[in-house]
Amino acid sequence: MKTKRNKIPALTKAQKDEFTVLAGASEKDIDTGELSELTADDFTRAVRFHDLFKPRKVQVTARIDADVLFWLKGKGKRGYQSRLNAILRVAMAADVEAKDDAVPKRSEKGPQSAQKGSAVTR
After folding, report:
1. Is residue 120 part of a domain?
2. Domain contains 37
3. 45, 56, 67, 71: least CB-packed within 10 angstroms?
4. How far apart are the C-alpha atoms of 119 and 113, rounded to whole Å?
5. How confident is the model at residue 78 (pLDDT cuts 50, 70, 90)?
C-alpha cells in the first residue's frame, strides 16, 4: 500500500473490529506463539529510535556571538552549521536524558500522553 509521507490511511471497519476484540482480550488469550522471547543479546544489539531517525532540517536565522562563529568556522569553513547542529544535539540529548531520569516510569504514574505540538516525545 503506497501512502503519502506522514499520511496514514484510515482504518477499515474490519481493522477497527479486530482492535476492539484485542482490546477486550486478556493477555493470556492473545496467541504470542509466533514471537520469540527477547534475550539479553537482543538488548545489547538494540539501538535507540532517534539513532535511526533522521530529523528533517529547517532553515533558521540565529544571532551567534562573533567569537563562537569564528571558532566554528576555524574548524573548517565548510560544515560549520553541521558542527553547530551536532553540538546542540549533544546538549539536547543530555537534557532529555536528565529529564528521563527524573520522570516517573509509566507504571508509577500511569500512561503519559504527548503534549500537542511537543517536539520531543518519549
Report:
1. no
2. no
3. 56
4. 13
5. confident
pTM above 0.70, yes or no: no
Q: Which domain holds residue 72?
A: 62-107
Nearest to 72 by CA among 54, 55, 89, 85: 85
- What's phi and psi for 33, nearest 5 deg? -60, -30
Q: Residue holding cell 560549520? A: 80
Provide the residue type at 31 as one letter: D
Give DSSP secondary structure letters for 22-74. HHHS-GGGS--TTSPPP-HHHHHT---HHHH--PPP--------HHHHHHHHH
Q: For the CA atoms of 58, 99, 47, 92, what is the dihedral angle to 10 degrees? A: 30
CA dist 35 and 50 (Å) reads 25
| pLDDT of res. 12 | 94
